[in-house]
Each structure stands twice: as C-alpha cells, then as structure tokens.
C-alpha cells in the first residue's frame, strides 16, 4: 500500500511543527512575581510581533507540506 505523503512531506511537517514550537517559546516570559507590579517586558517586540509571525510561518509551512507533490520525471512524448 502506497502512502499519501512522502518522506519529504513529513520533513516539511516537522519543520512547520518546529517553527510553531519556536514561536510559542518566543512568546513566553515577561511575567511578574508580584501581581501588583506591572512589568513592561510583556509588551516586548519579540512577544508582540516576532513570535506570532513565526507561528503563522509554521502553520503556512505545514499547509505547504500537505500540498507538496514531488515532481514526476516524465519525458515528453514526441
């Protein structure tokens, strides 16, 4: 039985999953030990702009992994 996805598809899936995990790791932090003290680090550019972009890039990569089809090496008939 032939699988729908090739090895290359699964590698693209793993790359996308890695990007999503990296994005969520970039969002972590910026909290405060004392709930009465405001920590402005929660609004850092890394957490507000970079991390969501990395997550979206990971989701797009997974979609590309689903849609990816290997090229067929066929000679055109004359």
Task: Record the SSE blueprint.
Blueprint: H1 7-27, H2 45-67
Report on this model:
Helix 1 runs antiparallel to helix 2. This protein has 78 residues and is an all-alpha fold. The chain is 56% helix and 0% strand. The chain has helices at 7-27, 45-67. The chain has a domain at 7-31 and 40-67. The model has no long low-confidence stretch (mean pLDDT 89). It is rod-shaped.
Would you summarize the structure shown here?
By secondary structure, the protein is mainly alpha-helical.
Describe this protein with a few key phrases:
78 residues; mainly alpha; 2 helices; 56% helix
Structural class: mainly alpha
State the helical fraction: 55-70%
Low-confidence stretches: none
| Rg calculated over all Cα atoms | 20 Å
**Strand and helix order:** HH
Q: Which whole number gives the mean pLDDT?
A: 89
| Fraction in beta strands | under 5%
Distance between the termini: 33 Å
